[in-house]
Design brief:
single chain, N-terminal domain of MutM-like DNA repair proteins, 2 domains, 7 helices
Length: about 290
């Protein structure tokens, strides 16, 4: 699933490509993806333009005129692929060669802008969605559906510490709970726990203050580096600006089971915790 670094990379890329360009057509190929109803969805967007692109956790919000917002969530396998004639910029779920031959069988919705620009929403498993909301609904979602978010002003030590107090859930599950901490998923929960030298299945409420401070610091550190490297799911793609995402090469534990730990040279292992494959070093992490 695309997480905070991948979604932030998409946001930054699209902000340079589509802001201020009029939407001249919207084609809906899968009504399940659109939550407003096809006719209302198209009426809201055609003839309009994107004013700004926001992100909250893993959720993208495209601000359009008249205080309306197009919410877009990629979920497990969603992708956004921008195409301007022969030039392509893409992000989201791991991208393969077929993904750039758009539209394709996984294209659910696509937008045509002035000047030959097009934006495709692809989703193999159809868990993602698009929905138009007003400003009050956007604010409700912004405040109520998401917890504190790394790299923002509300991600303070006091706010972070209070989330862990008395929690019986395991640390990895808490890090991935979007209502408590926004933006972290399976990849970066594993990487943060490795960075902090804490086993992912330790009970959150039983962690010592020094361990919590390490996790708090690592949340910011790990995500900042991932954003700098344009996220993990971009490793096989170079976009129209010559940018590529190479963070996959910097991962310490995720999908490295059977390989040597970068720190201690013991073998990275994989188990199942919080319903997800969990990667760890049993020597470095305690």
């Amino acid at each position: 699933m695309p997480e905070l670094p991948e979604v932030e990379t998409i946001r930054r890329d699209l902000e340079k490509k589509i802001i201020g360009h009029k939407i001249i057509a919207v084609e809906i190929r899968d009504r399940k993806i659109v939550k407003n109803g096809a006719t209302d969805f198209q009426k809201e967007l055609v003839g309009n333009e994107i004013k700004k692109i926001w992100r909250r956790g893993k959720l993208l919000m495209f601000e359009i005129k008249n205080d309306r917002f197009l919410l877009t969530h990629l979920k497990m396998t969603g992708q956004l692929i921008y195409k301007n004639h022969c030039k392509i910029t893409a992000g989201g779920h791991s991208l393969g060669e077929i993904d750039f031959q758009v539209p394709n069988k996984f294209t659910r919705v696509f937008f045509s802008f002035t000047g030959g620009r097009r934006l495709f929403f692809n989703d193999m498993r159809r868990f993602g969605y698009m929905k138009i909301v007003d400003a009050s609904e956007k604010e409700r979602i912004w405040e109520k559906d998401f917890g504190i978010e790394p790299l923002t002003a509300n991600f303070t030590w006091e706010n972070f510490k209070n989330i862990f107090v008395g929690r019986k859930t395991i640390t990895k599950a808490l890090l991935m709970n979007q209502k408590l901490i926004a933006g972290i998923g399976n990849i970066y929960a594993d990487e943060i726990c490795f960075c902090a030298r804490v086993l992912p299945w330790r009970r959150a409420g039983a962690l010592g203050e020094s361990e919590l401070k390490k996790i708090f610091t690592c949340c910011t550190k790990v995500l900042q580096v991932a954003i700098k490297n344009r996220g993990t799911t971009f490793n096989d793609f170079v976009d129209s600006d010559g940018k590529s995402g190479g963070h996959y090469d910097f991962l310490n534990v995720y999908e490295r089971d059977g390989e040597k730990c970068h720190r201690c040279k013991s073998i990275i292992k994989k188990a199942r915790h919080a319903g997800r494959g969990t990667h760890f070093c049993e020597v470095c992490q305690k």
